[in-house]
Design goal:
CATH superfamily of the largest domain: Thiamin diphosphate (ThDP)-binding fold, Pyr/PP domains
Structural class: alpha/beta
Largest sheet: 7 strands, parallel
Oligomer: single chain
Strand order of the largest sheet: 7-15-14-12-8-9-10
Distance between the termini: 41 Å
Helix content: 25-40%
CATH class of the largest domain: Alpha Beta
Strand content: 15-25%
CATH architecture of the largest domain: 3-Layer(aba) Sandwich
Number of strands: 21
């Protein structure tokens, strides 16, 4: 029998993943909008297909099949009101936790409301007819392909999760007439594992553990992660907000974000990812990613996720430590990364005095002096980025508002935290845009004497002047200052504006404009004894120095070929580089 599939790539991805997840049963209702899907599966012997003219009846049939067989059932319908007729049956499936997968074929969402026949809005389904609703766009780019793969995996896994239930897949079609595709594309399959299930074998290759933002760790988890590293020869990669204090960790950005370095250190056969969002923008190149989190949600940060472990981290590492109990201790991978880190840190110490007065320089000079058991809050984004290159003392916990990832609220968050533990000193490192955004919080009457604010005032959003920023890559240069980087606000680095405001509110005000002044006040600012006033230390730096300092931190390990490429880009512009690449390919 001839088996050919539609040339529409999103259809191919859907079918390939249905087969990979062993979902065979399909109920097809007649129509033209869904022809690319139906005509692609009808001759594939893998599928068990039934026909039903009435979509309302089809959905109830799916309930019956799912209940009796214990298997997921796929529904397929055309455009217009067809999908509306699924609602009663999907509602039944929702409350009975039956695994029904409603695939509604649709034209472009841009056509909704344009008086085009048979174009219905399915973007917001009722909350009790589908556990989740995903959209499969037309595939024109690698990102489109990744989106389709991710969304199909999400939907199919959700159909069987927590007892099961209906899910919705909105499949775009262009009515492609080409059905000449003989083989489905290989697709990444994401699996979900829960505690008590048989767990997959660990990779025999290079294993890294990347930790995003975490709350305070239990000692048992730290010990379990360290034991895992010893038994599997793994290394931990962390940022300041991870709050990891174990034996086998490396500050990731110092090693991974060096300009011109290859993938030898960034590459991993398996990367185990836990914690929440990281603001470090760590560059990693894993082949496969496993994520551990009690929420069990798919977070495909590195676009290589193959397994999600819906369990707490301690259970995960305890289980694999038991599996690998007879393995001899091996920490050679950690030692190689520690050597690389130490080498880079030595280079930093050699050049630190040549690095301009900046947020990054201040981080290097200040981090180790933070008092024991202090709490550090880092503002989005230049402060967080700069401090992600330096280690802080193990007893110091670090936080940043990486959830919403906005510059607003960092001061308020730190003040709120300081009210809970009044015996600890709370530090905030912030830039001027983030600080002024949340300025009103300094007037809160509950502020205690245990807060210390380090304000890096460069008079601009220096983050938007970095080389990787679109405006710079596009060749805007100083034109970036006008609107993108918002130069000139808040008194143009006024030496009196914050001084008077802070003092009038009862703060002790410190100020520095160069390295000597800063170092002369640093001991006072980091004094472990809570003073009789809250403290605000305003430091004036040049925006260009903030940018150049970060470049210096990323250039401790340089590669001449890389530097040459960057110079060419700066000279001729990013668009010209792309045109040149196209010419060379011809």
């Amino acid at each position: 029998m001839r088996i050919h599939y539609s040339a529409e790539k999103n259809v191919q991805i859907l079918i390939a993943l249905l087969k990979a997840h062993k979902i065979r049963k399909v109920i097809a209702s007649p129509g033209s909008t869904n022809i690319c899907f139906v005509a692609s599966v009808q001759n594939d012997p893998f599928f068990e297909i039934y026909s039903c003219v009435d979509e309302r009846s089809a959905a109830y049939m799916a309930c019956g099949i799912a209940a009796e067989s214990g298997e997921p059932v796929v529904l397929s319908c055309t455009g217009a009101t067809a999908s509306r007729n699924y609602i009663p049956g999907l509602t039944e499936a929702f409350y009975r936790k039956l695994s029904v997968i409603a695939v509604t074929s649709t034209r472009s969402v841009a056509e909704i409301g344009q008086n085009i026949p048979q174009v219905m809005d399915r973007t917001n389904p009722l909350n009790d007819i589908a556990k989740i609703s995903v959209y499969l766009p037309d595939v024109n780019t690698k990102d489109n392909e990744w989106e389709c793969n991710l969304n199909v995996n999400r939907a199919l896994l959700e159909a069987n999760r927590h007892g099961g239930g209906p899910v919705h897949i909105n499949l775009m079609t262009k009515y492609t007439e080409d059905f000449s595709v003989k083989e489905l594309p290989k697709q990444r399959v994401i699996r979900r594992f829960t505690y008590g299930q048989s767990l997959p074998e660990l990779s025999k290759g290079k294993i890294g553990i990347f930790i995003g933002s975490c709350k305070k760790w239990a000692d048992a988890l730290t010990k379990a992660v360290d034991l895992f590293c010893e038994r599997t020869n793994a290394v931990v990669l962390y940022d300041p907000t991870s709050n990891y204090t174990g034996k086998y960790g490396i500050m990731a950005n110092m090693v991974m974000n060096q300009h011109g370095s290859g993938n030898e250190l960034r590459g991993f056969d398996l990367l185990i990812h836990f914690g929440d969002m990281s603001g470090a923008y760590t560059q990693l190149s894993p082949q496969t990613v496993w994520r551990i989190h009690p929420d069990g949600e798919i977070r495909d940060t590195f676009k290589k996720l193959t397994a999600i472990f819906e369990m707490n981290e301690l259970d995960f590492f305890t289980k694999y430590n038991e599996i690998n109990a007879n393995e001899p201790q091996n920490i050679s991978l950690y030692e190689s990364y520690k050597t690389a880190y130490d080498c880079l840190y030595s280079k930093l110490e050699e050049v630190i005095e040549d690095i301009p007065f900046s947020n990054a320089w201040i981080a290097a000079k200040t981090a180790a002096l933070l008092p024991e058991n202090a709490v550090l809050h880092l503002a989005i984004l230049n402060s967080l980025r700069s401090w992600s290159f330096v280690d802080i003392p193990g007893s110091v916990r670090a936080y940043s508002n990486v959830g919403g990832f906005g510059i607003d609220g960092c001061t308020s968050s730190m003040i709120g935290a300081s009210l809970v533990s009044k015996d600890k000193i709370f530090f905030l490192v912030t830039g001027d845009l983030a600080f002024f955004y949340d300025l009103n919080s300094l007037g809160n009457r509950h502020i205690g004497n245990n807060i210390r604010i380090l304000l890096i005032n460069n008079g601009i959003g220096a983050e938007f002047k970095l080389k990787q920023t679109l405006s710079i890559r596009a060749g805007m240069g100083d034109d970036t200052d006008t609107y993108v980087a918002a130069a000139g606000h808040f008194g143009r680095q006024s030496p009196k504006l914050i001084k008077h405001y802070a003092q009038d509110l009862g703060f002790e005000y410190l100020c520095a404009s160069d390295k000597t002044e800063y170092l002369s006040l640093l001991k006072k600012f980091t004094d472990p004894v809570i003073s009789d006033k809250p403290m605000l230390f305003e430091v004036f730096v040049r925006s260009e120095d903030d940018v150049n300092a970060l470049i210096a931190f990323k250039s401790l390990q340089t590669d001449m070929k890389y530097e040459l490429k960057q110079s060419v880009k700066q000279m001729i512009g990013g668009q010209a580089v792309q045109k040149l690449k196209k010419v060379l390919k011809k």
